[in-house]
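> example.struct
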């Protein structure tokens, strides 16, 4: 399929710059070159053992996925049954919560929130504990269920040590606690075993995809390892009710994991994994919109498709860009100062250095004083303007009692405000001619 971008036609069937086009897209068997290309006997031996794994039929995939689902649901069911036994949860409420988790398309998060609400109403947990537990559970999905199981199990096993005397206590003998922990361990082990079966039956798919991405200074074994991580992720998120084969679903996760590694190797600056994940999702949605619209999508359209704000899309586009140029201008004026002008050059420090430093600090203070208090605090800590020591996002988050992601958002907002302030203070560059200059 072709579309027109900036007056030129381009093929948009595949937006994958790393894939070797010499391999057919539907290949599921590792090619013979895969074995020849490695001089490591251990890798070659592993590749040949993988080639001997039998592929699953669609019916076998569905059966295995059902077993995984049943095993994964068992730990929470065991814990809920303890609450029912201790009259802290009605059987009817338990059935309703489980049914809601199974029916939810967005994962069990909403049902887990309701469960926490029930636990609070029955005085099993204090408001503070519920709030803390909700934060630990995270945004949703199977990870949320696992987090809640871990936390509830910890609470039930150590119920007699709860500090709040107003909270209801779950009466369990030591033997009952041991049996409860054992039943949950068995269920979790079953889920892992079934998931491993699904993964091992599809390892050949990882190899066949990894081979297509060779030639980018990344060893084949590293590509396979990253592809395996993507395959494991696919196995944990596969929903057999959607009707498609597991391999069809897994291909996307495998490619994303491999492409993330290639991105890390190809970039001058290594990006955090959560940033790379956002960029990969952005690229996937961007390609889909290109196909649907037959043109480059507008940023507003991308934001709507990703369910993000326009500012968040702008941020991802910034991450997608290459290293920032020192010639980047701080405003649209031709004579505006550049980013390089504001960075000290040690080789150009003359007698005016201390005076310039005093003026510079005064100017920075004037700018920061016009920002909201919290944004001021973030920038001062981030760039070491308070004590000369730059703080990490995590350290600032702990100091301000907010998440690391929120600190990053505040930093972006503050920098945007500074740009606006700079534009408003047009006399800055003309009045302070020393900026970026050396002594005559």
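> example.seq
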């Amino acid at each position: 399929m072709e579309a027109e971008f900036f007056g030129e036609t381009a093929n948009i069937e595949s937006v994958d710059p790393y894939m070797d086009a010499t391999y057919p897209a539907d290949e599921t068997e590792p090619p013979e070159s895969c074995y020849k290309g490695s001089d490591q006997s251990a890798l070659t031996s592993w590749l040949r053992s993988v080639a001997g794994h039998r592929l699953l039929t669609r019916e076998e995939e569905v059966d295995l996925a059902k077993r995984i689902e049943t095993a994964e649901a068992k730990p929470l069911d065991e814990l809920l049954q303890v609450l029912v036994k201790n009259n802290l949860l009605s059987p009817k409420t338990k059935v309703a919560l489980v049914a809601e988790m199974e029916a939810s398309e967005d994962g069990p998060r909403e049902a887990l929130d309701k469960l926490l609400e029930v636990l609070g109403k029955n005085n099993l947990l204090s408001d503070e504990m519920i709030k803390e537990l909700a934060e630990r559970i995270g945004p949703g999905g199977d990870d949320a269920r696992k987090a809640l199981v871990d936390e509830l199990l910890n609470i039930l096993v150590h119920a007699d040590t709860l500090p709040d005397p107003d909270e209801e206590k779950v009466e369990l003998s030591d033997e009952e606690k041991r049996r409860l922990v054992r039943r949950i361990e068995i269920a979790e082990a079953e889920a892992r075993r079934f998931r491993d079966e699904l993964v091992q039956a599809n390892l050949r798919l990882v190899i066949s995809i990894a081979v297509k991405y060779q030639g980018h200074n990344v060893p084949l074994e590293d590509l396979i390892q990253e592809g395996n991580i993507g395959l494991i992720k696919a196995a944990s998120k596969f929903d057999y009710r959607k009707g498609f084969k597991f391999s069809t679903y897994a291909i996307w996760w495998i490619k994303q994991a491999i492409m993330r590694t290639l991105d890390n190797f190809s970039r001058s600056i290594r990006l955090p994994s959560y940033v790379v994940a956002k960029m990969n999702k952005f690229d996937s949605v961007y390609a889909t919109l290109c196909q649907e619209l037959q043109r480059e999508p507008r940023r507003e359209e991308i934001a709507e498709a990703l369910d993000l704000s326009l500012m968040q899309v702008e941020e991802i586009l910034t991450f997608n860009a290459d290293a920032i140029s020192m010639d980047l201008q701080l405003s649209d004026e031709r004579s505006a100062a550049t980013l390089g002008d504001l960075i000290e050059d040690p080789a150009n420090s003359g007698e005016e250095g201390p005076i310039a430093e005093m003026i510079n600090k005064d100017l920075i203070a004037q700018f920061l004083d016009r920002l909201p208090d919290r944004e001021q605090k973030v920038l001062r800590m981030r760039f070491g303007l308070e004590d000369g020591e730059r703080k990490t996002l995590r350290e600032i988050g702990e100091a301000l009692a907010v998440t690391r992601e929120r600190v990053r958002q505040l930093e972006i907002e503050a920098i945007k405000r500074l740009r606006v302030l700079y534009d408003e203070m047009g006399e800055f560059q003309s009045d302070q001619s020393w900026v970026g200059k050396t002594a005559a």
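> remarks
The chain has a mean pLDDT of 70.
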